[in-house]
Structure formats: structure tokens, C-alpha cells
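[job 4471] stage=fold_predict status=RUNNING
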Amino acid sequence: MSIFNRKTTTIAICGIVLIGGAFAIKAHSAETPKAAAQRINLYQSSPITSLDTARITDSVSSGQLEQAGEGLYRLNADSQAVNALAKKTTVSPDGKHYTIDLKTTGKWSNGDPVTAQNFVYSWRRTLDPKSKSEFTYQFANIQNANAIAAGKLAPSKLGVQATGKYQLKITLAKPASYFKQMLASTTYYPLDPKAVHKYGRKYGTSADTTVYNGPYTVSGWNGTNDTWTLKKNPTYRDKHAIKLTAINYQVIKSPSTSYNLYQSHKLAQVTLSGEQAHQNQTNKALKTLASGRIGFIQYNQKNPLTANRELRTALSLAVNRQQLVTKVLQNGSRPAATFAVRNMAKNPKTGADFTQDATVANTASYQPAKAKAHFQTALKQLHRSQIKLTLTCGDDDATQQIAEYLQTTLMKQLPNLTISIKAVPFPSMLSAVSKGNFEANLTSWSMDFADPINSLEILESTNNSNMGHYRSTTYDNALKAAEGADALKPAQRYQDLVKAAKTAMTDQAVTPLYDARTSILADPNVKGVVYNKFNGQADYRTAYVD
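[job 4471] inference complete, writing C-alpha cells
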């Protein structure tokens, strides 16, 4: 999962505040990281919903677990998988068998060792239908994973086993060139069975009912509150490399609130709203980062109204995406023409970006006249003289601004259309959408790794994150080829993915809106933060206050 690890979510706003009411940003000095107060504050636009690997569905929660947990690999600044708990990895020539030797120094915060069996237990538990995980699809490459998730096989049949206390063997049903990158996801993190058994259903529902094996431990989160703290984990295997002693978090939904704190020298970093980014165009502290996130509208295709493709096409063609990114977002984001973001993949033969090859004419361009024509057809097919549509979204300021823009422009371009906005707290939105209680949903998807499959797979008919219930045999077959017969054939696999993306756009499976970027102002006294070049995720393991 990335400050957005990466799951479906609303726009994330984050920043850094030096802790302590009277503690002001200090001038640059020659103090060493050891001498400076190694405490910072970060903020999110929504709260933690879970710290259980099987139940996390949003990037805020996943981002916290990234700091407080550790898997086999982590993604570096170039979004490539590098060793975390893995010590040595051996892959068979056919790409189906992985033997991973673990470091023997991993420990849980309760003192238990992190073993190969911890990974086996975690993965089996997530796939067990009793867990009701929405991310079982991430295991699809592993032998028997799909059958286990469907309740057709016992979790013990999963193609993973501990062949030693610190050795893991994985058998894939189909090879995947990006498998190590997937293993860096929090969904693949280990679990301590003793702790899970101790807390039962309460595991991961609060800071005190969770154990940690990463750089930090979580404290102060009771399951519903808007503040919590990450504290340096004294049992972490590489604790000497961690300089920060504490990271305080709070939920701030208003960009103006966080920006004002920065302006008054109480914030060391702030993520800017569009207007704020525009105001700071000449500020030397301004940084624009890739987000690896696609903003879009998903539709409940089990609802007769939003199941109508003519209506979905009309909505897509009535949106002026260029105006959306330049007048509303104003943070460097770009119009999206397909369900993917830039720099996920390049054409092996031409070098063209995937988003360019996957574009379909007359599906995501601004064409008011055609939008009106499609809307009239939709009215006839639905036997209506007008349409009332509810757009469900998160209640943070940034998301609501986008929703209000869409409401205004769509109602202006499409007479006899009325759009109501239903803005609710993110956990409530996620719950409603997962239960099918929506018509249209303004949301976004953050990529775990740089490959088009990471967004395209959530539209597969059997995917638990396909909350709009899009169904297409052509689409499914294209992904099946990309993940099967063509998995290790770069040129063929690329074309399979292009076919899937084009199919989704022709069907108007979703309405892609923007390829997200983030603008931040960062104080130079907070150093060592590593930003992923693909998705802008911040890694604080090497951060310190100078």
C-alpha cells in the first residue's frame, strides 16, 4: 500500500509538525541528529481503521502499519523491491518457485522472534473466508490462493510453507515479474499467532491489541480516535538506524488549518491544497511529487440507473479534466484518460507510456455535445425525463471541492440531471460502498507498485475490490492472459494489459478523472525523509531533525 498505501481512499493530506506547544522551528545549526529533539508530528485526512493485515482497506491504515511493521521486502525510492526481513531470495527458472531465507534478528514487540511460519500463518489467515479480507486478490499468483479465498480449499493448501525456522518456500500458480514488489505490500506482512490468539477478534482494533515488528510501535490509538503516536520500537532488529524517537499523528481534514500551522512556523511540512500550491509557485521550498494514484468515479452497476453505459459515458464526456486539474486541484495533477497513471510501464517496442497506448477516443475527453447526446439516449433507455444521482465521497475538504466541481459542471452540461453530494467520514464511505449502498462514488486508488496490473486488477469480475461490480469476459480474459500464458513475455503481456484498459474505457467501467500529484512545503530542518519517485510515499526510517 505509500502515504496512501495504496488502497481505495479519498485524497490524503499529510504534514509534519514539530512536537511541543512552545517548540518552534529552530534555525539550522551544527547539532547532530542525536542532540536534536528527534520528535515530529505528521497528519492524515482520515483516521486509522485497522492495524490487522487481513482487514486493512485504506492507505492511511496501511501507511501506519508500514512504519510499525515489516515484511520480506520494502520499496525503495525507485519503487524497486529491496530486502527487509528477507536475506536471500532464489527464484526458479520458470518463475514459479521462490525460496526466501529470512534474517534471524526479526523480533515482535512482545519479544517473540519473527519466523517463516509467521508469514505462512498470516497469509493463510487473510485468505480464509472467515477473515472477509478485501485483498485476497493480491495472493492470486500463489498456488491454490483463489480456491482458498472462495472456500473451496482449506487454507493449509496454500502454496507456501516454512521449510525451516527462517526459510520460506512459495509456489506460484502463475509467474509474475512483479511478485517481489507485491511481497512488499502490508497485506503480505507477517503476524504473531500468539498475539492474534490472545486478542482474538480484537486484534488490530487498537494500539494495545496489536504487536509490531517494525521501526515503530503505535500508541494512543483506541480504535476510533483522531490522534496517535508512533514510538521507536526497542525490539526492532535495526533499531540503531532509527533516529526519530516519536512521530505524533493527528487527523486534520482542513488544508487551511494545516497551512496556517506551517505559516506560523509550527509545521515542518505541509501538503498543499490546489489554491495554496498556486500561491506558492515561486517558493523554493515547494516540491511536487508523483502520487501513484488515480482519481475516479466508480458506479454501482447493480443499480439500474448507474448500470446504464450511456449515462456513464455522458458523465465522462461532460467533465473538463484540464479545468479540474488547473482550476481545482492546482497541484501538478494531470488529466487521466485511462484507468492508470504515468510511469507504470513503457511499451517494450516503442517506449511509449502505458497511459498513451491505453487511451480510447471519445471515452475520457471533454466533448459537451456528445455528452448531451449520450445523456438523451440514457433518458430514453431508462424511460425517464430527468435523472437524480447521488455522489458519495469522503468529507475532507479536498475531496469535497472536487465533488462540488463535478456537481456544478455536470449539471451545467447535462440539463435534467441533478446531482446530490453525500459527504461522509472516510470509514463510513468505505463501509457503505463495500456494502453496495451507493450510486456513484468519488474515490481514488493508490498503487502498491509500478505496474498497470495494480489498478486494472480491481476491475476484474472476481476481485473483492471491484465494488462497482463491473463484469466483462473480454476484460477478464485479457488479464488472465497477462497473468498466465504471457506473464514472462514482456511484449505480449504489455499488449494484454493495454487491451484490458481499452476494454474498461470502452465499457465506461469507471470514469478516470486525474493522475494525482502532490505539492508540499518542507522545512529543511527535517532531513533524511525518502520519497518514492513513483508514488511519493514517505519513508521515515532514516528521517531526523537537524
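[job 4471] summary: The CA atoms of residues 81 and 247 lie 25 Å apart.
[job 4471] exit 0
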